[in-house]
Amino acid sequence: MSGNTERDESGQFESELGNEDIMSYFAEGRPFHTAQEVADRFGIDRSTAYRRLSRLEDEGRLEKISLGSRTVVWWYTADTATAPDEVESDDPLFSAPKFSVDEPVDEDEIDDVLYGEIEG
């Protein structure tokens, strides 16, 4: 449980950890993390981190995918306003074709999706 015993108007424990702190963590290196990584980074319970990440997902600031029975990965959405600005717009990663996580890709097109169209 939190060391902070003050509650907000809805009866929830108040936290000094803000949404922008969590979003900044996604900008510090790689743009995807698990709830356990967020919990470890900020010294909170994994369940608390999961709830905070879920709220950010509800707000449209993060997306998630389940990778197994207990593994969920969270990442920036395409329209997240707090995404890192230092990325070069001519970076080939951002000129790659876009596809949805659930969209099937033909085996013949896998290299094009991963590496871009191969000229040669």
UniProtKB/TrEMBL annotation:
An individual GO BP term: regulation of DNA-templated transcription
Domain HTH iclR-type: 21-64
A Pfam family the protein falls into: HTH_IclR
Region (Disordered): 85-108
UniProt cross-references to InterPro entries, sorted A to Z: ArsR-like_HTH (IPR011991), Tscrpt_reg_IclR_N (IPR005471), WH-like_DNA-bd_sf (IPR036388), WH_DNA-bd_sf (IPR036390)
GO molecular function, one term: DNA binding
SUPFAM superfamilies listed in its UniProt record: Winged helix' DNA-binding domain (SSF46785)
Name under which the protein is recorded: Helix-turn-helix domain-containing protein
Source species of the chain: Halomarina oriensis
Lineage, broadest ranks: Archaea, Methanobacteriati, Methanobacteriota, Stenosarchaea group, Halobacteria
